[in-house]
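Problem 12. The chain below contains 186 residues. Write out its predicted structure in token notation.
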Amino acid sequence: MMDAQQDQDGAAGERSLLLVDDDRAFVTRLARAFETRGYPVRAATSVAEGLDAVKHEAPALAVVDMRLEDGNGLQIIEALRAARPDACIVVLTGYGNIATAVTAVKLGAIDYLAKPADVDEIVAALTREGAAPAEPPQNPMSADRVRWEHIQRVYEMCERNVSETARRLSMHRRTLQRILAKRAPR
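Solution.
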């Protein structure tokens, strides 16, 4: 009986997961989805909470957002890699670019996924064997959707200020307003 319990605890320890994202609704949904797949989950919504979770008990797996309200997800990657060198870390972000992807991988992330990513994609990234190449997406976003996502990101970065967003995108303010009023393309 005790050996079975220890085996379960050992397996649970190897599946321990830390989720760090400042979008509370998203991290709650993601935590629920991972828990139903049998992962013991600890969620954090800031760099400080994420670092505290790593200090308390370094998880085997982590999904870390790049941009957080109080800092950068790279800080959590560094701390987790120092506390547990064998941890599998996936960076999940809506602000993807090559420079941050390279930095995240150099610091120890095993994959870099752009939002929106579903739980199956994240699980596949976390459980991919060794240096197996990532599968190309089945349904890549259309060019219109990528453009719309970029505009939305810049709009949020500008704290929903239309004039500032239009200036940063080198776009006429009225054109931007029309784009923002429409639904997201598929």
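Discussion. The chain has two domains: 2-127, 143-181. Students who got a different answer should revisit the alignment rule from Section 12.3.
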